[in-house]
Amino acid sequence: MAPNAHIKKAITAMKALGIEEAQIKPVLKNLLVLYDKKWDLIAEDNYRALADAIFETQETQFKDCLIFVFLIIVRFVVDQIFQAAEVDRGKRKANEESDDEDALDEPERPLKRLRRRGGEVVSTSASNSPSLGSPCLNETTTHHDQETALVSLPFHPMPTENDPDAGALVMPKGEPFTDIPFTSTHQDSLENGNSPAPMPETEETNGRVEEPHGSTAATVDVPTTTIERASEHTVATTPEGSSTLELASSATGQVKINLSFAPATGGSSLHAPSMDELRRAMEDVCLRQYKILDPNFSVTRFLNDIASSYLELATKAEQPANQSPENLPSLTTNVDALKKSAAAIAFTAEGRNDLAAKVMKSANQSPESLQTTKVDVLSKSATATTANTSTDRNGHVRDDENSGVGESTGLVVVPECHISADELRMISSVVDITFGKETVEIPWVNEVNSKVPSPFRYMTQSLVYLDAEVKFSLGNIKDQCCSSCCGDCLSPAMACSCATAPGGFAYTKDGLLQNDFLEECISEARNPQKQVVQYCKECPLEIAKNEETLEPCKGHLKRKAIRECWINCGCTKKCGNQVVQHGLHTKLQVFFTSNGRGWGLRTLEKLPKGAFVCELAGEILTISELVQRSSSEKLTSPVILDAHWGSEEVSGVNRALCLDGTHYGNISRFINHRCVDANLIEIPVHVENMDLHYYHLGLFTTRDIEAMEELTWDYGVEFNDQVYPTRPFHCRCGSEFCRNVKRSSKSKKSKKRA
Ligand SMILES: C[S@@+](CC[C@H](N)C(=O)[O-])C[C@H]1O[C@@H](n2cnc3c(N)ncnc32)[C@H](O)[C@@H]1O
Fold first, then answer.
1. Where are the alpha helices (DSSP H) in 245-366?
2. Which Pfam families match (predicted)?
3. Tens of pLDDT, residues 451-467
4. Distance from residue 684's CA to the centre of ligand 1 (Å)
5. Closest by alpha carbon to 495, among 485, 481, 483?
6. Which of 293, 618, 696, 620 shows the shortest CA–CA distance to 465?
7. With a 6 A CB cut-off, is 599 part of the ligand 1 pocket?
């Protein structure tokens, strides 16, 4: 087929999904390069790769949009750029146009970061990316893998007009005076000898968590630098408060960003933090202050984006000097991204499936009925993620910062979003809420109203948010577990030392929980006579709530735990003592409940008693992080990992942990509460270690369950106390043992444990 015919087909396929031509072409162009013009790959699954790439681009743009405060900086920068007469426009690459590219008649807008399906980050503009250097260096050249090299800028203070002494500032610890790749590996964790948490997916990690080994996405490279004296090329200086932002470009298209922060506090006691410390602190600010929850957000990459936007603008055809900022392309893009945010999230899910088929499937839904919900989702997401954004009476999102800035421009008002009927239909037809991350697809249905699930990031395993310390000590496991065994520890032929441990294995060889073990767990949870309650000397929950007047510990239920074999044991992956770690396999469905409990989860297949359904996964927070978080937002699903609190082995309030699935979580976040006689029970499961501060929570069936039955578990909430920082709700579980009924605490307790 002629290249033009290929392109036409691709564009037609994308248009059928409601994507505009202008969005398709630049992405397609990059995809052609990436796939080495292999049209058969691009056309696979109804151009799924192309759709994925477009949605990724939209998502990336949306991320930029969320970074409100940085957007302000960008705006200043762009203002300055267009006013500066000496902007060098860099060098254009003239000889790259292929037959296919020729057919794409639009001027190239480089796709800055195009992620491959596996989550790898590929900088398609790496080959012509600018590289920058410190003024204190002479010309050096280092070659980096062009596929992996993202444009990145080392920070080297340099003397400026406003701050001639800047060059004398203490250099960040460990930052070499040569341009060395700046990776996201945590200095601290390396120093402590801690292994990173076992987080398998790049997409799911936040700045706090190590990025996966071997992934090119994990490294933010500082490419080769050619050193220029910045003073000769400075084109933009923007004072903001007492700080000054400067941008410099060289004749070869290199960009340098320098922010001089005037109020130098600390005087002689100033010490130099490491670059890694600084980056983490900054990402913490972004998370806490600006609520940038995207785990892929990185300050370094953001600075890269500023630099590449600068270049992109600087190499564009000349704009009239007085061009008003509201017409600037980069900002328009961000606004667009905001409008499309929810769509992008839904599209990402859709991209994994056959989009066209789903559009057809959902065509009977009324787009009008969804319009309100969608806009609602959008404005909610904007409010949640842009700290200084508000919405005016007409539904316009307003940039509050501009109200205080004299020369505010037309950039501040985002017009009401108009979402096409196709987009709305697609949102309503998601057939896999896990976005393909689990081994089974989990669809959602709403037979009650036109609501769609609120956006959240699906992740199969819990991840550390910021401060939580989760220790994985391989050596320790080996000592405690069956290093001598091989194959399947549950096979009768095996003489596995774990089998002779007190209690033996928790699982049968069919992968179910041993009935005795399960019954004990159930009765421990439901029967007061069986309960062992442990009390902390200094309860982390009470400390986090009020450090000044420390309330006595309210007690924590000691729980029986499962110990699974792991990769460091001598057995294989087929070992029957590995269940929770292999993830969920049950056919499930998210559905909207009809009695005011919102979404729920049900099984589509019959389940026997003792079957593992799923893990409770979420962000691993410290208790103080949880309390801090719950004071500013309503959390729906925090679970405190207190099964061993109060025991002698557990010490250190700072190591008290919990899980929160509100923003990042797995399918368990849809499971509703049922008092006492729920059909699921959560059981602590030790996989990577026997550290009693952290464990997995596996949800197992407490009885046989019929297909289409709703799954529930007892959250353990007491509806009349404030111990759990959960959003209070009026319980509608319908259980005869419901605790949300007013009665004396004594009779309530006896009822509960009846
Ligand atoms: C972990 S979420 C469960 C999924 C939730 N229903 C949803 O729509 O996303 C917990 C929230 O669900 C609601 N919920 C769960 N169980 C409930 C019950 N028995 N009665 C009323 N609301 C319940 C409460 O709003 C609670 O904060």
1. 275-288, 299-314, 329-339, 341-350, 355-361
2. SET (PF00856), WIYLD (PF10440)
3. 888 878 889 988 888 77
4. 22
5. 485
6. 620
7. yes
User: What burial class does residue 57 get, using C-beta atoms within 10 Å of its C-beta: 0-12 exposed, 13-18 middle, 19+ buried?
Assistant: buried
- For the question of an ipTM over 0.90, the answer is yes
DSSP string, 381-422: HHHHH-TTEEE-TTS-EEETHHHH-TT--GGGEEPPP---HH
Q: Which atom of ligand 1 is nearest to the CA of 636?
A: 27
pTM: 0.50
Residue reference for tokens 């003024």: 135
- In degrees and rounded to multiples of 5, residue 367 shows phi and psi of -60, -35
* β-strand pairing of 533-534 with 562-563: unpaired
Cβ neighbours for 441, distance < 8 A, ≥ 6 positions apart: 431, 432, 434
Higher-confidence position of 37 and 239: 37
Q: Which atom of ligand 1 is nearest to the CA of 601?
A: 4
> How far apart, in whole angstroms, are the C-alpha atoms of residue 406 and residue 610?
65
| Nearest one of 697, 693, 692 to 671, comparing CA atoms | 697
pLDDT tens sequence across 591-644: 999 999 999 999 999 999 999 999 999 998 888 888 888 877 777 778 889 888
Say how far apart CA 387 and CA 71 lie, in whole Å. Answer: 12
Side-chain-side CA neighbours of residue 335 (13 Å): 21
Ligand 1 pocket, 672 CB below 6 A? Answer: yes
What six digits make up the tokens of 112? Answer: 């800055």
On whether the CB atoms of residues 182 and 222 are closer than 8 A, the answer is yes
Count other Cβ atoms within 10 Å, centred on residue 44: 12
Q: Which residue has the tokens 């996966």?
A: 212
Residue nearest to atom 19 of ligand 1 (CA): 733
CA distances to 81, 94, 129, 141 from 248, in Å: 10, 25, 15, 20
Q: Is the CB of 38 under 6 A from ligand 1?
A: no
